[in-house]
Design goal:
heterodimer, A: mainly alpha, ABC transporter involved in vitamin B12 uptake, BtuC, B: mainly alpha, two-stranded antiparallel ribbon, 12 helices, 1% strand
């Protein structure tokens, strides 16, 4: 009994590692702030109030959390399958590109919801295709996927610029002679509904004051009904996280992906086609990044422009989100919201106390370093647990039979 | 006739730029090669280069002495290397991901320092082009090596940092194949258990190579900011660090292979720049894409290449395997 409690205690401690990593990273950030003669308390409170305490800040936080969540899901699937996908940036860009193209072509020719669906699928498939190339090269030829995905990022950026300067450029830009590389705005009929639109359909037209709400509850309510940038991509992203959880832990294919990620030779002995599953986990990862791109276009930007501004570093911050969520789809949901808030808060902090926003990049980098470094203690305890024959986690017995 | 001369001039221009542009790749890739030979894949090169690039630039900006910039960049890069070694050797962290973390960290730190210490893009003189003249040897002659027809100007009109980069190729090859240190590095990367049982400290060797790699990456960054361009911009490496890692794979973990890869890559890059200068009928975006496409193709080509170090990316724990 005593042993069981300590076992659970350590499992809890292991789960807290990412949180400790963030705290440590924020502490280093505080030192940097002090070096700049800025009070860390002021800076961080600006960050938190800016990102989490009012409806506009919250809306921005969730808007950023959407692509972070989707990209992180993709990264997590790939990691679980034993491949490292650094190419979400490029996969997001090509997904956004194809979504824009299909959206421009179909426009008003079909009912809005159908076009939206087609666009989302197109972006998803494109992202998957972009990731399948490094996946195939890895599985068949043993080419390091980290390097190829990074190269594919650069290629995606250049393709986007090429298309946006030529075939896909907004005709209005050509007419005006400014030639800024962006596409025309997509038809409004294929904008993803915003939360405020949904509230109107549902007949929620009372304001927070009418209902007598005050304080944070009023802000939360306002987030749902008042016009903010928050769009229904958030719902898609959260549903996807749940689906990925079911897929990875409740289906045979998901089980095999994780098996290949854990131990390739054992999987091969068990009759799993390892090469196929490497390509599959890479492709699935890319599909989520592509979906993120599609949703950014339909829900937020409504046109394609400078590719690096569309991807906005999500391909890399998504890795941080995935790690912080312990590569678990359900852990990634709060993780994405936290880091979305960090990105938004960094912006507010820059305006309030004149600390460059790149401080957030430093913090992101340190979170990664701390999480992967702290892993040694988690693993060390895991081996110790095995050696004293602790009960295995309940889920693994279920896996053995599936 | 005249047209032929122009084409010749352009070709020479491309080769000249190619030799020049290979500089940062050579420093970074040679350093990375030592790390990988000992079993550590350091993907933080990009961040290390950015730090070196800024620190080197800032030192020159303050003192006007390019050698101080060179030194400062080397030290800053080495410190970053030490950090990578701590994470990947002592903490045995997953190397691919920790490298990305380090790259983010370097990007953030260099941008923050740039914004708070400089604010705007400034220029420095840095290293100037260096010619080898007989007069400097005390010989009474005005002859300089760059006056050698055709090849002279291509080879002998670069900055000292470029010459050093090329000189490091045979030195690296010599260290790897002819010295005890090289032997230890290879042993640790190929079979750490055996090396360990013979009394070689796997950790010490890896700490050394990864720190050396950081030092070289720092210098690589500085070669951009104080030698090739004379300015510092945020994120100015723009992926060079990752390509440097790819070049090590491409070069089959040998210094000469790295040299071939770096030259090939930088020449395609130079070609791409000239395509833009000459306003040829090729979209510049497609041209910019070429080097990356080439790298993927080169990595995928089924040519017989040396196998990668057996223990690459595998942390070593005594008595575990």
């Amino acid at each position: 009994m005593q042993r069981k409690r300590s076992y659970n205690f350590y499992r809890l401690l292991d789960a807290l590692v990412p949180l400790l990593a963030v705290i440590a990273a924020l502490a280093v950030g505080a030192i940097i702030l002090l070096l700049q003669d800025v009070s860390p308390a002021t800076a961080y409170s600006e960050m938190i109030t800016g990102a989490f305490t009012n409806k506009n800040g919250l809306a921005d936080t969730f808007v950023k959390a959407i692509p972070l969540l989707l990209v992180a899901l993709g990264v997590a699937i790939a990691f679980r399958g034993g491949v490292i996908n650094i190419g979400a940036e490029g996969q997001l860009i090509v997904g956004a590109l194809l979504t824009t193209y299909v959206g421009l072509q179909l426009g008003d020719r079909l009912p809005g919801p159908i076009v939206i669906l087609i666009c989302l699928i197109a972006g998803t498939l494109m992202g998957g295709f972009w990731a399948a190339i490094p996946g195939y090269l890895k599985a068949r030829l043993g080419v390091n996927e980290i390097l190829t995905t990074i190269m594919m990022n650069q290629i995606a950026i250049q393709i986007a610029f090429f298309l946006l300067r030529g075939p896909m450029i907004d005709p209005a830009e050509v007419e005006a002679g400014t030639n800024i590389p962006h596409s025309a705005r997509l038809s409004q009929s294929i904008d993803l509904p915003r939360f405020t639109d949904i509230a109107q359909w549902l007949g929620l037209d009372k304001s927070a004051e009418d209902l007598g709400l005050t304080g944070f509850v009023a802000e939360l309510y306002g987030l749902l009904v008042e016009p903010t940038r928050l769009h229904s991509g958030l719902i898609i992203a959260i549903v996807m996280a749940i689906l990925v959880y079911i897929f990875l832990w409740r289906t045979t294919i998901g089980y095999r992906i994780r098996a290949v990620g854990q131990n390739q030779s054992a999987s091969r002995y068990a009759g799993i086609n390892v090469q196929r599953y490497i390509v599959l986990s890479m492709t699935l990862g890319g599909m989520f990044a592509g979906l993120a791109g599609a949703i950014e276009i339909l829900g937020l930007h409504h046109r394609m422009f400078e590719p690096t501004a569309v991807s906005a570093g999500y391909g890399f911050s998504g890795i941080v989100v995935a790690l912080f969520g312990s590569l678990h789809p359900l852990g990634i949901i709060p993780s994405a919201i936290l880091f979305g808030g960090l990105l938004v808060g960094g912006d507010k902090m820059q305006r309030a106390v004149q600390v460059p926003q790149v401080l957030i990049t430093i913090i992101l980098g340190m979170v990664v370093l701390f999480v992967v470094s702290a892993d040694i203690w988690v693993r060390r305890r895991a081996t110790r647990r095995v050696s004293v024959e602790e009960p295995p986690p309940a889920s693994s017995t279920a896996e053995a039979t599936s | 006739m005249n047209e032929n001369l122009t084409i010749l001039a352009i070709l020479l221009g491309i080769i000249h730029s190619g030799i020049r542009l290979a500089t940062p790749y050579l420093y970074a890739s040679l350093g990375e090669m030592f790390g990988q030979r000992s079993g550590v894949l350091n993907l933080g090169v990009e961040g290390m280069m950015l730090i070196g690039s800024f620190i080197g630039f800032f030192a020159v900006f303050q003192t006007g002495n390019p050698w101080l910039g060179f030194l400062a960049a080397a030290i800053a890069g080495a410190l970053m290397g030490l950090l990578m070694a701590l994470v990947s050797v002592t903490f045995k962290a997953e190397q691919g991901i920790s490298g990305i973390g380090l790259s983010l960290f370097g990007l953030g730190v260099s941008s923050l320092l740039f914004k708070t210490m400089l604010g705007t893009v400034e220029g420095v003189d840095g290293f100037s082009e260096l010619d080898f003249c007989l007069s400097s040897l005390g010989i009474n002659s005005s002859f300089c090596l760059s006056q050698i027809p055709v090849a002279g100007d291509i080879v002998f009109s670069h900055s000292i940092m470029t010459y050093i980069a090329y000189a490091l190729v045979p030195i690296a090859a010599w260290i790897l194949s002819r010295t005890t240190w090289g032997l230890k590095i290879k042993a640790v990367g190929q079979n750490p258990e055996a090396a360990d049982s013979l009394g070689v400290s796997v950790s010490a060797v890896r700490y050394f190579t990864v720190t050396l790699g950081g030092l070289m990456a720092g210098i690589a960054g500085a070669s951009l900011s104080i030698s090739l361009l004379g300015i510092f911009q945020e994120n100015m490496t723009n992926g060079i660090g990752f390509i440097a890692v790819a070049l090590v794979y491409f070069g089959g973990w040998s210094p000469w292979g790295v040299l071939v890869g770096a030259l090939l890559f930088s020449t395609v890059n130079a070609l791409q720049l000239w395509v833009q200068v000459l306003d040829l009928n090729i979209p510049s975006d497609v041209a910019v894409m070429l080097p990356y496409l080439l790298t993927i193709i080169a990595l995928a080509l089924p040519i017989r290449r040396a196998a990668q170090p057996a223990a690459l990316t595998k942390p070593f724990t005594r008595g575990e395997n």
